[in-house]
Amino acid sequence: MEINIPKTSTVFSSLLRADFTTQWRNRRSAVLALLVPVIILISWKGVIKMFGGAFVLSSAIALGLVAIGLMGYSNSIARDRDKGIFQRLRVAPIPDWAIMISRLTVQLVMILLVTLCVFITGYYVDGIHLSAVGYLLTVMSALVGGAVYLSLGQMIVGLIKNPETVNSTSRLVYFAFIITGMLGGLGVLGKEAKEIAHWSPYGAVQTILAGSLQPDLWKSETTTALLVTLGYTLIFAFMGIRKFKWNTK
């Protein structure tokens, strides 16, 4: 008896559709991820005169990326692992990496949506106009920056098995990024805290976003921030992949 095994591409496309369907069913969390940077962008309209449009846009996008990687990705992975969904998926004729690639693809689409929402709000509400090159480079930088938080979320899920603990840890890290990133970056917490915040994952991502928004002002410090961002991504991803377990046992 001949058994027809479906192609990996066919199974992957079905898995991708299922992941997008799940994301749509949980659209409330997706809407919140979109609203957070937009609300910050609108409320910071008065800050544009002091720090410039690039600073405000980069801050809004950076916070949106943190929400997607920590609040969205890590919690969804922990929840599905606890329910045994990954164990059942591994029985299907598809490699393990394809399962994670499907999940990451959904999050990358969310990153693009957040970035576009910030662009539209900045243009029509705050009157921030960028060049076509600036928009394109910022989209690319948002994907690079988003990879940092996705890999950080992967590391949290890899080190912690309990979904409730993952949820509380991701919230704590998210809050820490807000404090050190927003307040520290503005110098409210002092000079040393400002320097630490500048080279933290949040600060490095914000730096490359700000440099992308204004390509003419890209400097050596921005390039260094890009290399630091890639370094964070590699470290977090290595730890997250190495420690990740497909079940909670």
TrEMBL record:
It is found in: Membrane. Keywords: Membrane, Transmembrane, Transmembrane helix. Residues 12-189 form the ABC-2 type transporter transmembrane domain. The chain crosses the membrane at residues 30-48, 54-73, 104-125, 137-160, 172-190, 222-241. It holds the Pfam family ABC2_membrane. It is a multi-pass membrane protein. Coiled coil: none annotated. The keyword Transmembrane helix applies. Its main location: membrane. This is ABC transporter permease.
